[in-house]
Design a protein that fits this description.
176 residues; alpha/beta; Rossmann fold; 2 domains; four-stranded parallel sheet; 11% strand; globular; binds S-adenosylmethionine
């Protein structure tokens, strides 16, 4: 409510231009927080909000999946090598999409890796997710997994101004 009430002022101050900087965002302006949203939500003391965020992601993930909408075998089915990385789910939250991907395409060889901020990854049950691997990684830094079959970004780029979205993509381009 507060957000909606203050948003017009933020937009007017910005001359109705698209926000370009995560440090000068509607979120910060309307909430009065010093931290950008993802820096704030995983701070100690905000566990309730972090869990609400994860629940929201799970709910939003109930619709059609990547593996139901693209020709997976055509794109990723060329290798018989178990040692390759088949898929990296970048900003993959709790890994729900990758679990579903794996259930649908368990016959394809290669590792499946879910990456997200350590604050999220550290809450996951690694044994329960096996053979899917999880990895704490900040996508504004160098991508450590090189040459994967696919880097999957779902509902990630829309969270950021173009400048930061390009940084995320540049780090993946370098790894491709
Ligand atoms: C909108 S959610 C999308 C989650 C998942 N891809 C899905 O579709 O359900 C964005 C995700 O990006 C993660 N994230 C935010 N900042 C990040 C960063 N700097 N590095 C890695 N992940 C980040 C969040 O923790 C969150 O899980």
């Amino acid at each position: 409510m507060e957000f909606s009430a203050k948003l017009p002022k933020f937009l007017k101050n910005a001359s109705y231009n698209n926000p370009e900087d995560k440090e000068n965002s509607p979120w910060k302006f309307t909430t009065g927080n010093d931290l950008a949203y993802f820096d704030w939500v995983f701070q100690p003391g905000n566990e309730y909000q972090a869990q609400a965020f994860h629940n929201h992601m799970e709910f939003k993930t109930l619709s059609k999946k990547l593996h139901e909408t693209v020709p997976v075998e055509e794109i990723l089915g060329n290798s018989t090598n178990e040692d390759i990385v088949l898929l990296v789910d970048v900003g993959g939250n709790t890994g729900l999409d990758t679990v579903r991907f794996h259930q649908a395409w368990s016959k394809l060889p290669g590792k499946r890796i879910v990456q997200d901020l350590p604050a999220t990854i550290d809450t996951l049950d690694r044994d329960q997710l096996k053979p899917i691997e999880v990895m704490g990684h900040n996508f504004f830094t160098e991508q450590p997994v090189k040459g994967a079959g696919a880097y999957y970004l779902k509902m990630v780029l829309h969270d950021w101004p173009d400048k930061q979205a390009k940084e995320i993509l540049s780090n993946l381009e370098a790894a491709l």
